[in-house]
């Protein structure tokens, strides 16, 4: 059974950093494409970043490129999202996802609030 559990969200000041974690169970993170979406208040869910299976190639939305880094720890079976230089526009609920043969599974989300 696929399960994704996000953690690491919280309140951070503008310019600060956070690292989100997505602990996976029921599968191995190296075997599937995984990534992050986010939903800001009153907006649709928007894709943030992904990391491809096997190659480990990473891709980012333009809005976070150069500030966010997605990575994975195969031994711990965890995917991370390191977020630097945060600003108010990054305030959102962040969701981890995994793609398995065209089907997407989601975590429950973790709130990130950027505010002074």
Write a compact overview of the structure shown.
The protein is mostly beta strands. It is 0% helix and 54% strand.
What attributes does this structure have?
four-stranded antiparallel β-sheet, 116 residues, globular, single chain, mainly beta, seven-stranded mixed β-sheet
What does the model show?
The radius of gyration is 13 Å and the shape is globular. 0% of the residues lie in helices and 54% in strands. The protein is mainly beta. Strands 2, 4, 5, 6, 9, 10 and 11 form a seven-stranded mixed β-sheet that branches. A four-stranded antiparallel β-sheet has the order 1-3-8-7, with no helix packed on it. It has strands spanning 3-7, 10-12, 18-25, 33-39, 45-51, 58-60, 68-73, 78-83, 92-100, 103-106, 110-114.
């Amino acid at each position: 059974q696929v399960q994704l559990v996000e953690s690491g969200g919280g309140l951070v000041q503008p310019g600060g950093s956070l690292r989100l974690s997505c602990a996976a169970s029921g599968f191995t993170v190296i075997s599937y494409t995984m990534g992050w979406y986010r939903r800001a208040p009153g907006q649709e869910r928007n894709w943030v970043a992904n990391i491809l299976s096997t190659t480990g190639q990473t891709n980012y939305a333009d809005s976070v490129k150069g500030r966010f880094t997605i990575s994975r720890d195969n031994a711990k079976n965890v995917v991370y999202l390191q977020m630097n230089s945060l600003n108010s526009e990054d305030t959102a609920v962040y969701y981890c996802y995994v793609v398995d043969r065209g089907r997407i599974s989601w975590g429950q989300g973790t709130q990130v609030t950027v505010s002074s």
